[in-house]
Write a structure and sequence with these properties.
The complex is a heterodimer of chains A (about 180) and B (about 575). With about 180 residues, chain A is of the alpha+beta class. Chain A is built from seven helices and six strands; from the N terminus they run H-E-H-E-E-H-E-E-E-H-H-H-H. Chain A has helices spanning about 1-10, 45-50, 80-85, 125-140, 145-155, 160-165, 175; strands at about 35, 55-60, 65-70, 90, 105-115, 125. The radius of gyration of chain A is 25 Å and the shape is elongated. The relative contact order of chain A is 0.13. Chain B has about 575 residues and is an alpha+beta fold. Chain B folds into three domains: about 5-170, Beta Polymerase, domain 2, CATH 3.30.460; about 175-220 and about 505-570, Sufe protein. Chain: A (Alpha-Beta Complex); about 265-465, Cytochrome-c3 Hydrogenase, chain B, CATH 1.10.645. Chain B has 18 helices and 17 strands. In chain B, helix 8 (about 270-295) packs antiparallel against helix 9 (about 300-320). The chains are: A alpha+beta (about 180), B alpha+beta (about 575).
Chain lengths: ~180, ~575
């Protein structure tokens, strides 16, 4: 009994002031993913890496839009998205207060417009992703004019590229129509 | 991996089996140097398991069913035995069951430890162990259709739900009492606990004559989920979620099962980091259980202090992994984060504080006369019963058996660490508490050892490919005992079969024997002593058979009675 009382006095007040004062977290704490749509190119790498399916990507071809979505209710804060993101558009933050009153508030979305294929005119890839690839080419040392010329090829959907590959033997290449010689 | 015959451990067991039953052994394959899979004829299966279990110090780890009709035309059953005789190894006995008959002779008749495994085979695959004494459902709910077996490869899509077949409970509880008894149902569930269960105590006055229980109310279908939807690395994050307390140990077990199957090895530094985090998990799990032991005997000041100190172990996890639980750190082939110098320094500081504070608290706890009085001689698990049912962890160590995966089958970076083995013979609640309290300080020593001796180098191997249909075991010693995972790789970047078995699965079947002969007021204490989630005993319905009336007692009241032991709610 005496030992217990000693322990009680030694401890003093163990109660923390949270939520009236912030509770510090360790450096590298893995909390709510912070998303920057400006940096995002909608490449979908994070949605493939996410083990919990918290991240998803929906493509609406008719509207020419791709929607990126995160559900904080499903997130397990593993940070796989952060590891695979090529543009550092998503990173885990120290924020841990995620409770919401409305379920809809658990979702965050971003919309991206799709570039249409130069041949068949079907929207197929995010415009930002194509811009990113062109920028990568310039960064790799390709003259700007050449890189911009390559853009024409980048803006052809995989289906048309395949068709072109097949029809090239018959002497016709769709890519000629858009000024590209493959 | 090419396992050289010279490096193999456990060859004596295989030789003994071949000698005793020369015509029954069909095939022998080695997954790693200490894992052998022996295919035997269906008819010889019970005798083969019995020979290894009782004749060669084998313990039942898990029973795995696998739908291999697309591979070899049959279903297969795997009885995984942890061999703990002179040579320590795992021997897996495999038998094929043809889909035409779906029948094989039951092992439970000879080795009672197989009972849950075989009941689950019935539920999940529709396989019929002929002669199985207990044919009740184990996993599936009462309203599940009779002819739908979830883990068959041609079962209904996992996103669909079958039509429910009944509105009433059809489960029969078994009462072995000779005299007239009163039925006391405890449970069924508390939604926040990891293993809600329903207990039916058969009592005469205040004495428990027999007990039966039913679990799996919140079976989450994780194995099916992993097999149908998730990639290999995604499953490590799912394995983390098997338990809210000891998740990391499951993801290590899963990752190492795949590593073993592929013959790759996590780098030594990753193995050390895994060891450190596994022990951090043990620290907070044991502190939780010690705290609850205080709570159940009415020593709430002690409970509060253990939980206050436990916060340091949570901080330790946060410092090392970035999460208050040691979640999401494993990948197949290693870990995702290194331990840096400043984290290492903070870890040393925190475990120093923990060692000092817990020493003081344990001194207070064990010096409390009420504690010994309530715990001594209560919930006795007989050494022989323990041998028959293969319980694991502190539960079996408190009943006089030397079983600890860290020592018997060193995994991760445990080889060479100061793992002590604390064995008690009395098998009561007190000895389970004492075993845990001693292990706590071992964990601290192991963490210090690993921080001092972790080799430098990479923490993850990459660039390997997955070979279809290779399989192996992964195992860890979770805070509650052996966790074992059996994984078979598939041909579509998904697991063909994943069987994960948590420690408590092996401890539950022997609980019945711990409850017998005790009083109702000790029931929550005994259940908590095997360290499942204590919310399992959420609400109590009292059915008085003699008076033919039913009354419901809220869990709070039951808990109060356990703590105060006055004003029995049964009167």
């Amino acid at each position: 009994m005496f030992k217990l009382l000693k322990e009680v006095f030694r401890t003093g007040n163990a109660t923390v002031r949270y939520p009236f004062a912030p509770l510090p977290t360790s450096p590298n704490f893995r909390g709510k993913p912070q998303y920057d749509p400006e940096r995002c190119i909608a490449c979908a790498a994070c949605t493939i890496a996410c083990p919990a399916n918290a991240l998803s990507m929906k493509t609406d071809v008719a509207a020419g839009k791709r929607t990126w979505e995160i559900c904080f209710g499903r997130c397990v804060f593993c940070g796989r998205c952060e590891e695979v993101c090529p543009t550092h558009a998503i990173a885990l933050s120290p924020e841990y207060e995620l409770a919401v009153l409305d379920r809809a508030d658990l979702y965050q979305t971003a919309e991206f417009s799709l570039a249409a294929c130069r041949i068949c005119d079907t929207p197929f890839a995010p415009r930002k992703e194509i811009d990113y690839v062109v920028a990568l080419l310039i960064n790799a040392g390709l003259p700007e004019a050449v890189a911009e010329q390559r853009r024409a090829m980048l803006e052809v959907c995989p289906a048309c590229k395949r068709r072109d590959e097949v029809s090239r033997e018959s002497g016709f290449s769709g890519l000629h129509h858009i000024g590209m010689t493959p | 991996m090419s396992v050289t015959p010279e490096s193999r451990r456990g060859t004596a067991y295989v030789a003994a089996l071949r000698q005793k039953m020369p015509n029954s052994v069909l095939d022998e394959s080695w997954q790693t140097a200490e894992q052998a899979t022996i295919t035997v004829t269906r008819e010889a299966l019970p005798e083969a398991v019995e020979t290894l279990y009782y004749g060669h110090d084998g313990w039942m780890s898990v029973v795995v069913g696998s739908d291999e009709r697309l591979l070899n035309g049959n279903f297969a059953v795997y009885y995984v035995l942890s061999m703990e005789g002179v040579e320590k190894s795992y021997v897996v006995l495999r038998a094929e069951v043809p889909p035409q008959t779906m029948e094989f002779p039951s092992v439970t008749v000879k080795v009672p430890a197989a009972v849950w495994g075989e009941r689950e085979l019935r539920d999940m695959f529709g396989l019929r162990p002929v002669g199985l004494p207990d044919e009740r459902r184990l996993v599936l709910p009462d309203d599940w259709p009779d002819d739908l077996y979830p883990l068959r490869k041609d079962a209904m899509d996992y996103r669909e739900r079958p039509q429910i077949t009944t509105e009433t409970e059809t489960y029969k509880f078994i009462n072995a009492a000779k005299c007239e008894t009163t039925e006391v149902p405890l449970g069924p569930l508390h939604i926040t606990s990891d293993e809600p269960g329903h207990f039916r105590l058969f009592v005469d006055g205040e004495d428990i004559i027999d007990a039966d229980y039913r679990l799996f109310y919140v079976h989450r279908g994780m194995e099916k989920l992993a097999e149908t939807r998730m990639g290999y690395n995604d499953v490590t994050f799912l394995a983390d979620r098997i338990c809210g307390i000891c998740g990391f140990t499951h993801s290590v077990a899963y990752a190492s099962s795949v590593e073993n199957a592929l013959g790759i090895q996590a780098p030594p530094r990753a193995a050390s980091i895994r060891t450190i985090l596994l022990e951090v998990e043990r620290l907070h799990s044991h502190l939780l259980n010690l705290g609850l032991a205080c709570h159940f005997v009415g020593f709430d000041t002690g409970f509060m202090h253990f939980f206050r100190v436990r916060e340091k172990s949570m901080e330790l996890a946060e410092v090392l992994t970035g999460s208050r639980k040691t979640y999401a750190l494993n990948l197949i082939g290693g870990v995702r984060r290194d331990i840096l110098a400043e984290q290492s320094a903070r870890t040393r500081q925190l475990i120093g504080e923990l060692r000092e504070e817990v020493t003081r608290l344990l001194d207070i706890l064990l010096g409390t006369p009420n504690m010994r009085q309530r715990l001594e001689g209560v919930g006795h698990l007989d050494k022989k019963v323990a041998r028959d049912y293969s319980p694991v962890g502190p539960t079996v160590r408190a009943s006089g058996h030397r079983r600890d995966v860290r020592i018997d089958h060193p995994y991760a970076g445990y080889a060479g660490t100061p793992v002590g083995q604390h064995i008690m013979d009395s098998g009561d609640v007190l000895s389970r508490v004492l075993v845990r309290s001693k292990e706590f300080f071992d964990s601290i020593a192991i963490i210090e050892h690993c921080l001092d001796n972790a080799p430098a180098g990479p923490v993850l191997v990459e660039g390997f490919t997955y070979t279809p249909h290779r399989f192996a075991l992964g195992y860890t010693e979770a805070p509650r005992g052996e966790d074992i995972h059996w994984s078979m790789l598939g041909d579509n970047q998904k697991l063909h079969r994943w069987r994960c078995r948590a420690a408590s699965y092996n401890n539950w079947p022997s609980l019945r024997y711990m409850l017998r002969g005790n009083t109702v007021s000790d029931a929550p204490l005994i259940v908590a002593s095997i360290d499942p989630c204590y919310s399992c005993t959420d609400r109590v319905t009292v059915v008085d058979v003699r008076k033919r009336n039913t009354s419901i007692i809220p869990y709070k009241e039951m808990e109060r009675y356990c703590r105060e032991r006055t004003n029995s709610p049964l009167k």
